[in-house]
UniProtKB/TrEMBL annotation:
Source organism: Phaeobacter gallaeciensis
Annotated coiled-coil segments of the chain: none
Residue span(s) of domain Glyoxalase/fosfomycin resistance/dioxygenase: 2-102
Domain of life from the UniProt record: Bacteria
Protein name: Glyoxalase
InterPro entries: Glyas_Bleomycin-R_OHBP_Dase, Glyas_Fos-R_dOase_dom
SUPFAM superfamilies hit by this protein: Glyoxalase/Bleomycin resistance protein/Dihydroxybiphenyl dioxygenase
Amino acid sequence: MAFYKLLGLVETRRYDSEQGRFSLIFLAPPGQEDAPIELTYNWDGDDGLPSDSRHFGHLAYGVDNIYEMCQHLMDNGVTINRPPRDGRMAFVRSPDNISVELLQNGEALEPAEPWASMESSGHW
């Protein structure tokens, strides 16, 4: 949850299933509660799922300033797997290994350092 709060998302609702042993957590940007993302938490773990969590693709999330968001995430210990070299797109991984694509809202920002020359890290 802390990772998604770093992205600026807030919990809008939650459904806990004691019988199914899972929780569904819905998060959205403030003021955009009608467009939530859903996170599924399996209380007993996710044994048997692919280890890189790319079996479903990835989550894409628009941000107002991709450079500021990437710096904010780095300042809080998040690895930028694919830096926003083009001022338009970056990839990070959530703590549960979900690939998250960050997209610049509107037009791409002008390429800027340190992002323009930053190497990719790991896989995304």
